[in-house]
Specification:
482 residues, alpha/beta, UDP-n-acetylglucosamine1-carboxyvinyl-transferase, Chain, four-stranded mixed sheet, globular, binds shikimate-3-phosphate, transferase, EC 2.5.1.19, 3-phosphoshikimate 1-carboxyvinyltransferase
Length: 482
């Protein structure tokens, strides 16, 4: 259990230690298995989820050599994926379980994929059914739940249109298609995150996409030779970076500069939503390695309510954090078409709403989303007038939070008004639940920067962002309780 103290002053911080991208890290370990020579992967995410993926890759024959820096590796592939002699433990990672199911369905051998109690409660039929339709032999518990047993064999090509907007389903099918007898076509109604296509194309696979208004269609040609190796520095994860964008957006007189973040358009939609709510957000592209990378600057401003019903797959990981922004906005915000939130690491609709209700915030659970009545924030309005105008050609120089010399006036305003307004509207002494879900724990921890918070079972944060609390501690007091 942790307690987070509310901040007494604005945050001004440059953060260059955001966790490396989780989606890309998973894929680096898996795709390196398919290369003809060693891959060089720098800044691999050393978090629970991606360490599970790496352990599994090792069991399948990947040789992992550490380079000097933390997270830098040489991944040497086996001549052929080897059958492991024990269970492949995916931990909490849905991406590991679903992508490996696709890949291993088409390899010779017997594979058993298992995970923690949360992963065992997540639906796997979304990959099992389409894979079975092309000949895969997959056995599951209770008609579609892990542990899964996969007996690899040669698969047929497919022409499949997914009714679920899921990059995990798409990636599982693409990996199977690389080893199928004939070419395959995968269509999706929403263009979900596309790291699999980008990275595999970069490694020499023949994967093309054409998009009409209604469908995005991907053509996959089976591999005739092994792939070229990866040579990549993994950028910071925009989904992890977003927690600190949220911190700046909801804390009066604040700004953050998030360094070296992945700027793939399918991954930064939450920053666009924050911008549409009134926060100041700027992107500074710096380089491109398989993907666009750059810095994101976020500054607080009065927030207005929004209604979100489109591009949900581009926001799916950030909706719990956005829900916190809605709490500080003026008016009623609403999320629809987001039923997928119910089958993430936990039921995120229920988790967000039950915590907000416990705090006393007016909100409602919908089958496919939620409605939140913003508390409004006179404090953001007052301090907005004081904030410096941003000149994009000249990003402000930042100090670490500890060194910031805050305006005495801003300090006084924030203390008085916090006591008199928001804190009176909520009961911040209640123990909030993480539901074992890293993104729920981190979203409410950021809310604690404004209101104070007590959160149970925060260990799950290490699933994706092991140094999250370290960064938070540079902003406020975070105490561990038993
Ligand atoms: C991921 C895809 C998304 C996302 C998850 C990572 C990936 O899941 O929520 O955190 O790396 O492909 P779905 O594709 O199931 O929506």
């Amino acid at each position: 259990m942790i307690t987070i103290a509310p901040v007494k002053q604005g945050l001004h911080k440059e953060i260059d230690s955001i966790a490396p991208d989780k989606s890309i890290s998973h894929r680096c370990a898996m795709f390196a298995l398919l290369a003809d020579s060693p891959s060089i992967v720098r800044n691999y995410l050393l978090a629970q989820d991606t360490l599970h993926t790496l352990e599994i890759a090792k069991k399948l024959g990947l040789k992992v050599t550490e380079l000097g820096e933390k997270g830098d590796f040489i991944f040497t592939p086996p001549s052929k994926i080897t059958e492991p002699d024990s269970v492949l433990d995916c931990g909490n990672a849905g991406t590991a379980m679903r992508l490996y199911t696709g890949l291993l369905s088409a390899q010779n051998g017997y594979f058993v994929l298992s995970g923690d109690k949360y992963l065992h409660a997540r639906p796997m039929n979304r990959v099992i059914k389409p894979l079975q339709s092309i000949g895969a032999q997959i056995y599951s518990r209770n008609g579609g739940y892990a542990p899964l047993s996969v007996v690899g064999r040669e698969l047929l090509g497919f022409n499949f249109t997914s009714e679920i907007a899921s990059a995990q389903v798409k990636s599982a099918l693409i990996l199977a298609a690389l080893f199928a007898k004939d070419s395959s076509v995968y269509s999706e109604r929403e263009h979900t995150r596309d790291h699999t296509e980008r990275m595999l194309c970069g490694m020499g696979a023949e994967i093309t996409r054409d998009s009409t208004q209604a469908l995005s269609t991907i053509h996959i040609t089976p591999l005739v030779r092994k792939l070229k190796p990866l040579d990549i520095v993994i950028p910071a994860d925009p989904s992890s970076a977003f927690f600190f964008a949220l911190a700046a957006a909801i804390t009066p007189d604040s700004s953050v500069l998030l360094k070296n973040v992945l700027l793939n358009p399918t991954r930064i939609e939450a920053f666009k939503v924050l911008e549409s709510m009134g926060a100041i957000v700027e992107y500074h592209h710096t380089e491109c390695a398989y993907e666009e990378v750059g810095d994101i600057y976020v500054q607080s401003a009065p927030l207005r309510a929004v209604a979100i019903s489109e591009n949900i797959s581009w926001l799916i990981d950030e909706l719990p954090a956005l829900a916190i922004a809605f709490c500080f906005a003026n008016g009623r915000s609403e999320v629809s078409n987001a039923k997928e939130l119910r089958v993430k690491e936990c039921d995120r609709i229920h988790a967000v709403i039950s915590n907000l209700k416990a705090l006393g915030i007016t909100c409602e659970e919908k089958d496919d989303g939620f409605i939140i009545e913003g508390l409004g924030d006179t404090l953001l309005e007052k301090t907005a007038q004081k904030s410096p105008k941003v000149d994009s050609s000249n990003i402000p120089i930042f100090a670490t939070a500890k060194n910031v010399d805050c305006h005495a006036t801003a300090h006084a305003v924030s203390r008085n008004d916090r006591d008199n307004s928001l804190c009176e509207k909520v009961d911040s002494s209640v123990v909030l639940r993480s539901f074992g879900d890293h993104r729920i724990a981190m979203s409410f921890a950021i809310m604690g920067l404004r209101l104070g918070a007590v959160i149970d079972d925060e260990e799950c944060i290490s699933v994706s962002f092991p140094n999250f609390l370290e960064i938070l501690r540079e902003m406020t007091e975070v105490r561990l309780l038993d």
